[in-house]
């Protein structure tokens, strides 16, 4: 999975509220997540909160990576983050 500046504010932060329980359920097979955020003041703290939550609650079969692009905005994040996400998720084993 790839998430850039995810809408964690949506539904009154409902995704974050339900995340610990969902993470405890786990998945039957391994998953990978690349999470990136821009440096926008409204969005970056939410993504950092998700990364902190993943650090505490991620199941063993979830490999995840968080990257902050502090000099990017929501509008400019896609191109640099997409390149890094693809390089990270599809690097040779």
The helix fraction, in percent, is 40-55%
Helix/strand order, N-terminal first? EHEHEH
Order of the strands making up the biggest sheet:
1-2-3
| Radius of gyration of CA atoms, rounded to a whole number | 13 Å
Extended strand count: 3
User: Which class of secondary structure composition applies to the elements?
Assistant: alpha/beta
Largest sheet: 3 strands, parallel
User: Globular, elongated, flat, extended or rod-shaped: what is the shape?
Assistant: flat
Name the average pLDDT.
95
Low-confidence stretches: none
Please report the distance between the alpha carbons of the first and last residues.
Answer: 18 Å
In quaternary terms, these chains amount to single chain
**In percent terms, what proportion of residues is strand?**
15-25%
Number of helices: 3
Task: Report what the structure shows.
The chain is α/β, with parallel strands linked by helices and 93 residues long. It has helices at residues 10-25, 44-57, 78-89; strands spanning 2-4, 31-38, 62-69. It has a 3-stranded parallel β-sheet, sandwiched between helices. α1 links the parallel β1 and β2 (31-38). α1 (10-25) packs parallel to α2. The longest helix is centred in the first third of the chain and has 16 residues, at 10-25. The model has no long low-confidence stretch (mean pLDDT 95).
Features:
3 strands; 45% helix; 3 helices; 93 residues; alpha/beta; three-stranded parallel β-sheet
């Amino acid at each position: 999975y790839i998430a850039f500046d995810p809408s964690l504010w949506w539904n009154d932060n409902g995704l974050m509220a339900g995340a610990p329980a969902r993470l405890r359920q786990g998945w039957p097979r391994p998953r990978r997540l690349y999470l990136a955020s821009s440096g926008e003041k409204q969005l970056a703290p939410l993504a950092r909160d998700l990364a902190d939550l993943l650090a505490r609650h991620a199941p063993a079969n979830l490999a995840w990576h968080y990257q902050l692009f502090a000099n990017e905005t929501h509008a400019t994040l896609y191109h640099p983050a997409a390149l890094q996400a693809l390089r990270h998720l599809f690097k040779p084993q």
